[in-house]
Amino acid sequence: MFDTVVVATDGSESVKRAVTVAVDLAGRFGADVHAVSVVDAGEVDASPEQLRDEFRTALETHAESALSQILEQAGQGITTAVREGRPAPEICGYARDVDADLIVTGTRGRHGENRLLLGSVAERIVRTAPVPVLTVRQLESSADDDAMGADAASVTG
């Protein structure tokens, strides 16, 4: 059913659970896992011109660190990529490029609780993705963490 799973990361805490779910799901189907992090070009462009290069470099370093955390957490071979642009279109484009069968993402990102149900990037991915999307919320307590719990994830397609 799944040959390629893409997990999107921004390095936020909520992504850790999404990675766990993505790796578990991929393992069940023998699928390859790809992790992608996007340097938000909008954030770079909104920064003062004299600071843009330094800010871009800082965001690239953050993206690489987020991907390193996934590699460490997953404990298995995962293909990683850093892209620059608007996060949702870049993630969806990456999924197309690798012929993904599923995109997995957390429901909240670095910008926190600014949306009622889904973070704005997760919402845009759900609306525009070329493949089904599994959104994984972060539970309040890790003791309640059941990687495939019915209340923890939703699939759209």
TrEMBL record:
Transmembrane segments: none annotated. InterPro entries: Rossmann-like_a/b/a_fold, Universal_stress_UspA, UspA. Residues 1-137 form the UspA domain. Pfam families: Usp. It comes from the Archaea. Belongs to the universal stress protein A family. This is Universal stress protein.
